[in-house]
Amino acid sequence: MRPAISLICAVAAVSGVPAAAKTPAIDLSRAEAQVLDLSKQLIAIRSVRGPDNRTPDALRAVATALTAAGWQGSEIEIVPVDDTAYLISTWAGSDLRLKPLVISGHLDVVEADPKDWTRNPFTPIVENGYLFGRGASDMKYDAALATSTLIALRQAGYKPRRTIVLQFSGDEETTMKTSRLIAERLKGAEMVINIDGGGGTFDEASGKPVYWTWQGAEKTYDDYQLEMTNPGGHSSAPRPDNAIVQLAQALERIGNYRFPAEQSPLTKAYFEKAAQFESNPALAAAMRAFATNPGDAAALETLRANPAYVGKVGTTCVPTMITGGHAQNALPQRATANINCRVFPGHSREEIRAQLEKIAAVPGLKVTAISGEDSISSPASPLRPDFIAAVNKALGKAWPNTPIFPSQASGASDSMWYRALGVPSYGASPVFSKDSDDFAHGLNERIALRNTRPALTYYASLFTDLAQ
User: Fold this and answer.
1) For helices 452-466 and 28-43, what crossing angle results, to 10°?
2) What are the percentages of helix, strand and coil residues in the chain, rounded to 5?
3) Is 344 exposed, middle or buried (0-12, 13-18, 19+ CB in 10 A)?
4) φ and ψ at 177, to 5 degrees?
5) Tens digit of pLDDT for each residue in 351-398?
6) Is the dihedral of CA 300, 303, 309, 315 positive or negative?
């Protein structure tokens, strides 16, 4: 990572690791039942942006569960925004001088066409130990877990010292407008636990936990438009300045370009630890070599050839859409393409735009950053000892002896809005899955219900430790 945004190993504003709090005994059977019930309620609500968006109904389902458990109406706020909404609920701590702990998630989901699914995506179904439905893994089940844990803690008589804020955005999968608004409102938080990030892997054969990762950083999502314009003319009189040909030349250069490899303390730790669990010996060797020397050309070639690792070694930019021309018998007056970039932390939007322009090397080509307010560059969160101690303890209770290591997400989440404002945010979901069960955003999305009791145990420990 670039020095200006280096991952801080020393702890900002934390002088040491506080003694772990005693986790109150919660009624796990009652909480398990509530998790399944609330998960089903949420999955049945079509919380998709556009016509008939019912995200506000999903938020109200959470609010109803909280109210039934003792939250007052004044402690729960649902704020309409365009065709969606967001929720902020507050559980006041005993020491209001302390900055709050924020638990962050979202209740909107990506579109799902019932015609394409084996089961209706908005009809929750339990089969063979799995909960099926849109949002099962991203992330209505996790929302139900976190909500039910807080309810169980309150019912057990727990009183947090630090205020706990539970918030759900309503458009994380699309514009992230509510995500930005929430982060701005909660920018005085001590820490954010993003339950829409991190997680564990089950072994394909045995079903046992293999390892678990938490996310301390993420790459920036950015789109850029390439535009080439010409006067046009009759196709019977071709000229060298053909907008489609010129755009194609630019796209070929960008497609062949490899951004410099980069590494941060967080990604270095990831490759060192993850190499132990990579079954392919060549990939494992490349991971260890890259961790030792990010400039190792042979290791880079191996990692960049693998879809699982290419996004972890630096910035990537790829063409994703192209349009051009206005008639079959006319020279093109205009040709455009979209370049989607996932930018390693520490680089500005303008820096990448200028670099794309230089790589394309086509006179007259216009390169424009078009992501607008849908994305923002954010630094990595510091490696805070209090967070690390709390997650290690919590996961140890839920899944004993499971290896733990940090990671950097290649996608985008609500964490970036907090990190951009200087608030540490950590993706720390306790949910495990097999790689073969990963259908988030895809068909027949599912989650293994054997996660429920360990996840409740984990959240109860994590929340009480960080809210003391």
Assistant:
1) 100
2) 35, 20, 40
3) buried
4) -65, -45
5) 999 999 999 999 999 999 999 888 899 999 999 999 999 999 999 999
6) positive
Length of the chain measured in residues: 468
User: Is the backbone of residue 25 left (phi > 0), alpha (psi -120 to 50) or beta?
Assistant: beta
Going by pLDDT thresholds of 50, 70 and 90, the confidence category of residue 24 is confident
pLDDT for 137-186, tens place per residue? 999 999 999 999 999 999 999 999 999 999 999 999 999 999 999 999 99
Rounded-to-integer distance, Cα 48 and Cα 388, Å: 35
Residue-wise pLDDT for 64-80, tens only, equals: 999 999 999 999 999 99
CA distance 284 to 274: 8
For 213, counting Cβ atoms within 10 Å of its Cβ (0-12 exposed, 13-18 middle, 19+ buried), the class is buried
Structure tokens at 211: 């390892």
Decide: 256 and 358 in contact? Cβ < 8 Å. Answer: no
- pTM value is 0.88
Give the chain's domains with CATH numbers: 12-218+380-466 (3.40.630.10), 220-374 (3.30.70.360)
The residue type of 183 is A
Q: Return the H-helix or E-strand segment holding 288.
A: helix 281-292
Report the pLDDT value the prediction gives residue 80, as an integer from 0 to 100: 98
Contacts of 10 (CB under 8 A, 6+ apart): 382
Dihedral sign computed on CA atoms, order 207, 210, 215, 219: negative
User: Residue 181: in which H helix or E strand, if any?
Assistant: helix 177-185
pLDDT at 306 > cutoff 90:
yes
Rounding to the nearest 10 degrees, give the CA dihedral for residues 186, 397, 26, 41: 60
> Which CA distances in Å does 401 have to 210, 383, 404, 463?
10, 21, 9, 21
